[in-house]
């Protein structure tokens, strides 16, 4: 028997109510903050991700789905959303538009990693990016948008964690100090962190192993090594967040998992779940556009996994509005009535009324039972007698009351 590949899942009809709800909230949130939708290809030139995400990251080193096509091109299924949006920004000359350019996406993401709750090899991500403005007020707006999005979904007891990891001017000095500190603890590090020490010391702070986390707690803090410009930017951001009433905590060891971040990084987590269940996060990447061949362009973004959001909606018992249901069920008795039912159902649908038709050969009792299961408001019953008289029986499913309605008045009655 065939099964879905490990780390993937089917989104069955019973689960679609969550997806519909979240997508509606995404669209509403982005409309309020002035973001426009963008869709990029499922796969890109592999070099785009090794250049942007970082060759020393776990994503590029271990998790990407990479293949050669029949033309010999090295391609990769999208492992994150930002790089593709940046590529599109440069390729289509969006730098010529009034800045900041604000874009959002809803897209499948592919990473070969160990499947666990809220984490899949194919998962779906909502994200947004703002290009062309380096003011800390934009950082505050991006963070506020993420916070208000989760609150609008009905999620409570959230934590907002914030840090600044500096820029290309001040970070090298911090990395040197960080490397010196960890060199003294080499024997206590996990194998992955021993490799990171030489290649990417900032990622040492992001290790989830308890032994490495204990070492990280006493590591030098990036905020103590910021240049004056980064320090002023971070200070102003905290003031903006205070004015917006957002309850943030500075987490000196928050670095995020991608190499392109600069200055601001942030995450939003459920209060009781901890870092393993981060709902979403993001930060600045002021050098990425230039690294991808564009002009120097400051930028900031955010992303969240849809499956993880659904997991937290269920954990917190958030009541989700039901999906719209068909308004009418079309029941019939006999072959002549079946033909009229088909015609009448089509007429109502073209007038904008949702109709579900029952199958031929079922008894009227079975058809009414089906209508109850579908939770329709009305059932239209047609038999030979109704066809000859040009009428239908309209049954109110809530009260079980029935009335005879001429066919030419049915649309008005239902409306």
How would you portray this structure in words?
There is one protein chain. The protein folds into two domains: 13-170 and 226-315, BirA Bifunctional Protein, domain 2 (2-Layer Sandwich), CATH 3.30.930; 328-414, 3-Layer(aba) Sandwich (Rossmann fold). Helix content is 38%, strand content 21%. It is built from 15 helices and 16 strands. The chain has an eight-stranded mixed sheet with strand order 1-5-6-11-10-9-7-8. Helix 1 runs antiparallel to helix 5 (136-153).
In short:
The chain is an alpha+beta fold. Helix content is 38%, strand content 21%.
Structural class: alpha+beta
Number of domains: 2
Radius of gyration: 28 Å
User: Can you tell me the CATH topology of the largest domain?
Assistant: BirA Bifunctional Protein, domain 2
Broad CATH class of the largest domain: Alpha Beta
Strand order of the largest sheet: 1-5-6-11-10-9-7-8
Largest beta-sheet characterization: 8 strands, mixed
* Overall form: elongated
Looking at CATH, the homologous superfamily of the largest domain is: Bira Bifunctional Protein, Domain 2
Q: How many helices does DSSP assign?
A: 15
CATH architecture of the largest domain: 2-Layer Sandwich
Binned, the helix content reads 25-40%
Low-pLDDT windows of residues: none
């Amino acid at each position: 028997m065939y099964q879905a590949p490990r780390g993937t899942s089917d989104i069955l009809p019973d689960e679609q109510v969550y997806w519909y709800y979240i997508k509606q909230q995404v669209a509403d949130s982005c409309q309020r903050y002035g973001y426009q939708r963008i869709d990029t290809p499922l796969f890109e030139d592999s070099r785009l991700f090794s250049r942007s995400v970082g060759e020393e990251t776990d994503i590029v080193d271990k998790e990407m789905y990479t293949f050669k096509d029949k033309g010999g091109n090295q391609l990769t299924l999208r492992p994150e959303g930002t790089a593709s949006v940046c590529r599109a920004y440069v390729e289509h000359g969006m730098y010529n538009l009034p800045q900041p350019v604000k874009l959002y996406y809803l897209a499948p993401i592919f990473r070969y990693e160990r499947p666990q709750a809220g984490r899949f090899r194919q998962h779906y991500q909502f994200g947004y990016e703002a290009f062309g403005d380096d003011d800390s007020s934009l950082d505050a707006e991006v963070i506020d948008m993420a916070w208000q999005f989760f609150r609008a979904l009905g999620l409570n007891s959230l934590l907002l964690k914030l840090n600044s990891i500096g820029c290309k001017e001040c970070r090298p000095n911090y990395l040197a100090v960080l490397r010196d500190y960890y060199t003294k603890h080499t024997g206590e590090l996990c194998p992955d962190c021993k490799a990171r020490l030489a290649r990417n010391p900032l990622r040492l702070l992001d290790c989830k192993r308890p032994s490495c986390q204990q070492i990280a707690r006493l590591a030098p803090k990036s905020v103590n090594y910021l240049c004056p410009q980064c320090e002023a930017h971070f200070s102003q951001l905290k003031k903006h967040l205070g004015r917006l009433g957002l309850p943030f905590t500075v987490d000196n060891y928050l670095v995020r998992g991608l190499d392109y971040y600069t200055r601001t990084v942030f995450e939003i987590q459920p209060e009781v779940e901890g870092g393993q269940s981060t709902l979403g996060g993001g930060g600045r990447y002021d050098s990425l556009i230039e690294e991808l061949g564009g002009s120097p362009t400051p930028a900031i973004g955010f992303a969240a996994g849809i499956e993880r959001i659904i997991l937290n909606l269920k954990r917190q018992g958030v009541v989700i509005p039901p999906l719209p249901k068909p308004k009418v069920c079309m029941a019939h008795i006999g072959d002549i009535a079946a033909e009229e039912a088909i015609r009448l159902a089509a007429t109502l649908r073209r007038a904008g009324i949702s109709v579900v038709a029952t199958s031929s050969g079922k008894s009227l009792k079975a058809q009414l039972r089906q209508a109850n299961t579908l939770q329709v408001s009305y059932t239209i019953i047609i038999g030979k007698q109704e066809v000859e008289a040009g009428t239908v029986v309209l049954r109110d499913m809530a009260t079980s009351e029935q009335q005879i309605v001429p066919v030419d008045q049915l649309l008005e009655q239902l409306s």
